[in-house]
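Subject: for your reference before the review

Hello V.,

The reviewers asked for a structural picture of the protein, and I figured it would be easier to keep everything in one thread rather than splitting it across files. Below is the amino acid sequence we used in the manuscript, unchanged from the supplementary table.
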Amino acid sequence: MSAQPEHLPAPPPAPAPRAAAQLLVRIRAERPERAQRWLPAFERDWAKALEDSRQTYDLSPLHEVVRTWQVRLDSAPAVDAFVAAGLDDEDGVDIDQLFGTRP
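And here is what came back from the structure prediction:
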């Protein structure tokens, strides 16, 4: 008998081929102060994932960057509303705890 599971969970679907370019458009369309912070951060994450993918011949790092940034951009309005409401955020959770630390 093998200790391997019979069925492995299906990996999440790959992002669309233009997803990274669409993310850049969305980041640039954000408020200027946010775009100034997020654009270099996205480009840094993308460059690292691209280098990792080149070394391993695996697109997973690129897909993970796209998924992470899609979540960030999708959740930005909710975060803005939370902050604008003046609610206490001292008991918040660090995003790295949710998505894992970036190397």
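For the response letter, the relevant points are probably these. Residues 94 and 100 are 10 Å apart (CA to CA). The two ends are 37 Å apart (CA to CA).

Happy to draft the paragraph if you're swamped.

O.
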